[in-house]
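Structure first, sequence second, as always.
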């Protein structure tokens, strides 16, 4: 039995059997370092990267502590968005598969409140929700939190960035004081320290791999005199380094829009991601960026957090992050496994004080450089084009149907077909621009699964 095997923990037979059937062979690092404390009932602050298995780290403990015979809410998980709440609820249900009658309820905004009230009346053990809607239920008196034993703040930094601080306070005030509070966050800025001080007792701080190995990321800092030099500087860096996929971080939404307009005017294929975009728009931006039909993704930290984009050729900090931890988090998105990444930072003279803080934080000295030379004639431009089909999983479409139509029906070469993304009611296929026209014709004129669908180029 290895130290990181789940069976080294005091877990029920049913839980161990289920973990085994889920093929969770070993604990991830954050699980190994946090689960023993969490199971002992201690408060923790855990800081770890996306995809490190944080949900199971608290989920296993929530389920193990549950008294299934008592139909009151015993645990509450707060998440920043509906999408994340759904993901957490899904993982909890997987973890609860072999335990009978566990009721897990999601309470998020964007859907009517009536059915949620009905579900609450029938009883729920664990509630997962977004702060705004949870507060609505508290105010209506439809959700009682006096019986909860465990409160989880998942992606707490993001909840604060999204302006949920007051709602979180309202929730805290409604919760049983004798509870365990678990706080998960990708970064650990001051406002998280303050929230922790208000709601936790002697929290243990657990940090896993947030500071990236500096050797693996080549960082450059370019000094600019004025802030109006930043847009041309981004263009110069794109021309010089030629990254196939890069993310450009700005500190404001307005900054993102301005850069987007500038790069588009210069002929660069760029898209911006906003925190307040509709789900469908967001999906499309991420699809086009991840399938390589768009070169530059422009985003604020809020918009980019919680999304799985890594292994990029370059991260460009158009504005330096206000916080050193955020800086490190941003640049962690460059570099594929085993390969070194590239972080390009623009520093306007009046921001030089941020450099001193970064030097302290990273424990290394920073050289300010002059911009390299870049020929605007050689800007990165994507080879792929995204085609959008107005049918998806709910229409029983599968990636194989699309590949079949393109290769068998239209006789197009398989190697020219890129990533396929399937959603409930939409599918996206990336194709090499050389076959885009023929592929679009096939998808619009031909059939998939014996049916006609509409298709268009994005
Ligand atoms: P985070 O919240 O840290 O971003 P998640 O909790 O969403 O990450 O987990 C990422 C993925 O890893 C999920 O698909 C989850 O099912 C899987 N996972 C979690 N723990 C384990 C484990 N011990 N072994 C194998 N897979 C795991
Ligand atoms: Mg998570």
């Amino acid at each position: 039995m290895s130290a990181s095997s789940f069976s080294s923990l005091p877990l029920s037979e049913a839980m161990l059997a289920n973990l085994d059937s889920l093929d969770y062979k070993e604990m991830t690092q954050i699980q190994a370092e946090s689960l023993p404390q969490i199971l002992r009932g201690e408060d923790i602050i855990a800081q770890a990267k996306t995809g490190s298995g944080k949900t199971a780290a608290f989920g296993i403990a929530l389920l193990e502590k549950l008294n299934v015979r008592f139909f009151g809410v015993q645990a509450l998980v707060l998440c920043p968005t509906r999408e994340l709440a759904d993901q957490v609820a899904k993982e909890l249900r997987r973890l609860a598969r072999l335990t009978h009658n566990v009721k897990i309820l999601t309470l998020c905004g964007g859907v009517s409140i009536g059915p949620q009230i009905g579900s609450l009346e029938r009883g729920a053990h664990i509630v997962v929700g977004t702060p705004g809607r949870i507060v609505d239920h508290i105010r209506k008196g439809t959700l009682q939190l006096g019986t909860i034993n465990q409160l989880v703040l998942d992606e707490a930094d993001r909840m604060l960035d999204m302006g949920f601080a007051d709602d979180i306070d309202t929730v805290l005030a409604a919760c049983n004081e004798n509870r365990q509070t678990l706080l998960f966050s990708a970064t650990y800025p001051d406002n998280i320290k303050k929230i922790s001080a208000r709601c936790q007792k002697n929290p243990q701080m657990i940090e896993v791999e947030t500071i990236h190995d500096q050797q693996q990321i080549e960082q450059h800092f370019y000094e600019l005199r004025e802030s109006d030099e930043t847009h041309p500087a981004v263009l110069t860096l794109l021309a010089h380094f030629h990254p196939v996929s890069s993310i450009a971080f700005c500190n404001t939404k307005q900054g993102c829009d301005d850069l987007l307009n500038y790069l588009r005017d210069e002929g660069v294929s760029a898209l911006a991601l906003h925190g307040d975009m509709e789900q469908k728009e967001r999906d499309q931006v991420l699809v086009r960026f991840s399938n390589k039909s768009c070169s530059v993704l422009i985003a604020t930290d809020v918009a980019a957090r919680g999304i799985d984009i890594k292994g990029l050729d370059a991260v460009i900090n158009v504005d330096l992050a206000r916080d050193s931890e955020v800086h490190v988090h941003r640049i962690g998105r460059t570099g594929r496994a085993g390969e070194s990444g590239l972080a390009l930072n623009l520093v306007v003279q009046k921001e030089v004080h941020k450099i001193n803080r970064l030097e302290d934080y990273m424990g290394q000295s920073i050289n300010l450089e002059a911009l390299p030379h870049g020929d605007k004639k050689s800007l990165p431009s994507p080879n792929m084009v995204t085609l959008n089909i107005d049918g998806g999983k709910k229409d029983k479409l599968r990636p194989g149907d699309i590949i079949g139509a393109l290769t068998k029906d239209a006789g197009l070469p398989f190697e020219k077909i890129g990533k396929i993304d399937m959603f409930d009611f939409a599918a996206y296929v990336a194709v090499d621009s050389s076959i885009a026209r023929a592929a679009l014709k096939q998808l619009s004129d031909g059939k998939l699964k014996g049916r006609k669908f509409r298709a268009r180029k994005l």
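Margin note: The chain has 17 helices and 18 strands.
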